[in-house]
Amino acid sequence: MAGQPLFILLCSAEHEKIQMAAMLASVAAVSDRPVTLFVSMGALPVFQKGLSPDEAYKGGSFSKILRDKGAPDAITLFGQGKMLGEMTVLACSMALDVLGWELEDLTEDLFDEPGGLTKFLNDAEDGQLVTL
Amino acid sequence: MSKRTTIDAKGAFCPGPLMELIAALKLVEVGDEIEVLSTDKGTVTDTPEWVNKVGHEMVETVEHDGYWSVVVRKAK
User: What distance in Å separates the CA atoms of residue B67 and residue B57, rounded to the nearest whole number?
Assistant: First the structure.
């Protein structure tokens, strides 16, 4: 039986927060919890297609430790969660608009569709919402 | 006849070993076992939690010199 849906609102460009979101999303998805990830604001440019991890992730001292120690790459983790569990990834349509981007400008095979905040909030009434 | 597959995830950090275990379980038959070798101590506590949540079976956890062997049987 599926567990309580998990909704993650990811707004931060900080590597540490994106890493935490990726860990939450991937582990929940493979633990029979449907996950919806809504990526907006400063988090969206992190997912620009073609960026290296050094270009994508901006963080503090812990970000350096994560990279130096070879912690799992956050974007790869999102992909694993999507592949192995039930995960929907939405790119905030407003953030796409202000950047002048389309889904094609983002990490390949990760985003399902552009999403609006109203629907995300309505859907999240049925689950647990985490904001990072 | 069931078989056991070993995954060497030593050096991988959370949730790497768990994700490798889950990916491997997708590829084997019900009754088969996956052994994960991990240096991540969280694997020892997180794997039984995950197994219990999704309905597989824990076989054993063995501590070796600097790493753990965690064995899970695919139950469904």
Answer: 21
